[in-house]
Structure formats: structure tokens, C-alpha cells
Amino acid sequence: MQTQRTALVVGANGGIGQETCSALLRHGWQVRALVRRAPEGEQHGIDWRIGDAMHCADVAAAATGVDVIVHAVNPPGYRGWDRLVLPMIDNTIAAARVHGARIVLPGTVYNYGPDAFPLLREDAPQHPQTRKGEIRVAMEQRLQAASEAGVRVLVLRCGDFFGPRPGNNWFAQGLMQAGKPVKRLSYPGDYAIGHSWAYLPDVAETLARLLDREKELARFERFHFGGYWADGQAMLDAVRRGSGDDSIKAARFPWWLAQLMSPFNETMRELCKMRYLWRKPVQLDDRKLKAFLGGDIYTPIDQAVRASLIGAGCIAAASEHALLTA
User: Residue 95 in contact with residue 101, Cβ under 8 Å?
Assistant: First the structure.
């Protein structure tokens, strides 16, 4: 009889962390969560551990006896990457080495520069244009080195995250204003240029499905999550359908304002550095992932956008029911 597997999710209060906890529970895992503050109310079957991903001892203690460590922690609002990101991944690597756990990293496209565009394969060259991208490359390099020393690693690289849980993402905080009805879509790029979007519940479900097949994974395994390949007009149309409002206008994200604020605001400064990802098509090649998992991976985009609009407080749940029954 197989012993129930245990996963530690570091950063379980974030968007990807919350969704991964839910997906792993659905797949029969025992889930432990390392957070600085446990959520109030219902615990949802999660074993909450209070600690800090910056403290090696906290991560090591929380990882005792686990099979997997999901490294889902990121500095909020793009702040403090130079100081925080690499020490946190080092602590996760140290804990995985001691306890024999596989590390799971939800990755991004920040690793890549225009020389790898437009279609990104798992082995595409990584020549980032920003410090954030360099840090992402360094994270994966440290994971690669750890795998050569015996630590198992799974990296799932994704496009821009969005989903039904509140979070720091372009969809809820850039394209629109969370908590308000959508009157205009402030798109960050040319409406004719395609962009990769990753629906967080799908990302988490994909991670859980991959971990269900642990024995088939390489020691250092990488997959690209294609998600939705949509240009600005397609996303605008999806938001209009999701909200039931065809009058939502196409607008441009105010980069000029972000530039003005950047000397005084670290989040705006880092946001501006990533603008290059909106100037050219950037698509993740997911053929390897689809060949491995088979079947459907992605929720229909209209359903994903509706759920995300509700989560952002832009439409009421009653509106969702009306749309589904109309």
C-alpha cells in the first residue's frame, strides 16, 4: 500500500501557492504550507507552518519528511528581488538536499531575451535584458547544479499569470482596476501582437498531474506551459464576453505615467524594465508538455476570464450565474 505523499508549498498565500495547495489536495497529497502568517478561518486540510523563506532553518524544519517542495514564493510588487530571491531559492535547495525532496519551480519568461522570440522551447537560449531576468536565470542555474548533485527538480515555465484568487498580476492590476466594473481595457502592448497567458488553476493542476508521474520525470525536468496565446483584441473580446458588457473600450496602459513614477516607486521601475515582453510576440512552445500529459490541459478562455473577473471583484458572482444560464 502506497504511503500518502506530502508536499511543502513555500509561499502558499500567493496566487500560484494557493492554487497549488488546492490542486495537490485534490490529487491526494498531504499539504504543508510555509507562510509568515496563516490565513484566518477554515484551514482547508492544510498543515500551516509559520516561518520565513529567508530563514534556512524555517524552511528545513517545515520540509521534514516531505516528498516535494513547491517554491512558489516571490517578493510582492517586484520589490527586493536583488536581496531576496536567490537566498530564498538557496534555502529551498538546502532543505531539499537534506530531506531528499523534489523541488518544483513555477517559472516565467523573464529568463529570455528577444534573441529567443517568438516561440520559446525548453532549450531556448537564455539571454535576459533585465536584472530580474538575470536572477531568474541564476535561480535555474542553481537548481541545475543541485540536480547534478542529486536533487530532483521540476520547472514549469509560464506566461503572465491570472486567475480567480486576488494576486499581483497584469490582468487584475494592469489591464483593469480590481474591485471596479471594467469600463476600459488598459492593454500594455500593441493590440495586434500575441502574448502568453497562464490561468493559475490550470498551472497548478498541471503541476499536480506531472508530480503524479514522478517516476517518469528526469532528475532535472523542464516543461513549457503554453496557456492562452492571445493578442490584445482577443483578450478584450474575452473580457467583454466574460463581463457581459460589449461596451468595454480598448485603451492603452499609461507607460508614460509608469515611467514618471519609476524613480520613486520600485514596482513601477521594475514594471517598466519588463516592457520589452509586450513589444514582440512571446509564445511558449508546449508540445513537450502536451505529448507527456495528453488530453486537455487548458480551461476554455471565456470560463477562465469570467472566474478571474469575479475574483478581482470586477463582476459579481450573480453575474456569472446569469451568464451561464442565459
Answer: yes
Strand, helix or coil for residue 45: coil
Q: Which helix H or strand E contains 311, and what residues bound it? A: helix 301-311
Give the predicted TM-score (pTM) of the model: 0.93
Sort strands 6-10 and 195-199 into parallel, antiparallel or unpaired.
unpaired
Pairing type for strands 68-71 and 6-10 reads parallel
Cell numbers representing residue 17 in the block: 501557492
Helices 232-243 and 301-311: angle between axes, nearest 10 degrees: 70
Per-residue pLDDT of 269-293, as tens digits, reads: 888 888 999 999 999 999 999 999 9
* CA atoms within a 13 Å half-sphere pointing along the CA-CB vector of 28: 7
Residue 139: all three cell numbers together: 535561480
Grid coordinates belonging to 126: 537564455
CB 10 within 8 A of CB 66: no
All cell numbers assigned to 240: 467583454
| The C-alpha cell that represents 185 in the structure block | 481595457
